[in-house]
Amino acid sequence: MSSSYDVLVLGGAGVDTIVYVPELPLPYADSYKIRPGIETRAGQTGDFVALGTSSLGLRTHHIDLLGDDEAGDLVRAFHRDRGIELTEVRQPAGTKRAVNLVGPDGRRLSLYDDTRSQESDRLPEDLVRKLAAASRHAHVSITYPCAFALPLLHEAGLTVSTDLHDWDGENPYHEPFAYGSDVVFVSSTALSDPVATMRRVLERGRAEAVVATAGADGSYLLTRAGGDPLHVPAVAPRGPVVDSNGAGDAYAAGFLFGRLSGEPPERCALYGAVAGAHACTVPATASEAVDRATLLAEVAALS
Fold first, then answer.
1. So what CATH class is 5-11+45-93+119-302?
2. Domain residues of the chain, as ranges?
3. Which of 96, 134, 255, 293 is in Cβ range 3.0-4.6 Å of 4 for a Cys bridge?
4. pLDDT at residue 1, rounded to an integer
5. pLDDT at 2
6. Is the dihedral of CA 149, 150, 155, 156 positive or negative?
7. Which residues form the Carbohydrate kinase PfkB domain (predicted)?
């Protein structure tokens, strides 16, 4: 029986307030006058992965906790306007929020409101099982509800991916995600020894592939085939770099598109690099992902 969805995205729905600053780190001052200004828009990691996979033609469904608030309305509109199916579970604490400081070079500093996430948060098991049974693959955000959903996804026989973001390789909170996923993405930013961490994820978990992203230095791919990590150079963006927000999510979406299309891991990493480069040309206040035709054309030009 064919699946209704190619990708089930769990968690990571929320709202960001974008603040453009003259430099990062931002020196202390009593006040700053900033341009282009301050804007609040829907879109956190789960939203952007769902946007990326959907834009690439993958049938995508997103499930997360949302509040009955204005922020939740923005998230609901984000999905509705882009035709991305959304299952929401009511969150009494409200919709997750963050403030992103964005410098002139596109670098970002994120401040997350941790009061909107509780250790007791759960996604209803019957809902997860129902959606998992209708899906080919699940991408889980590193939020409390998703950790408890992992066994249900394994039980359903789904392959699973996750993004550990700026994990330091030691924080035990990330381990259920790192060792319970078939494809693991992680930023190399906080890793003292990225290769050792990648090898440990492969040795201790179920991962078939681990990707360490390194910004302008590209990414590194390690699989169960062994050997040293494969360096995948960054792809030059087709336009000016204006913001790195969402580049990692776009990379993950591109990689998953390749994987679900039957491509080998190194080809998937190239898809991810192209998608991530495109995301860097999109202002933080906008929400746009590369489409399938553009991605395939750019990959063909690089091959």
1. alpha beta
2. 5-11+45-93+119-302
3. 134
4. 42
5. 60
6. positive
7. 201-287
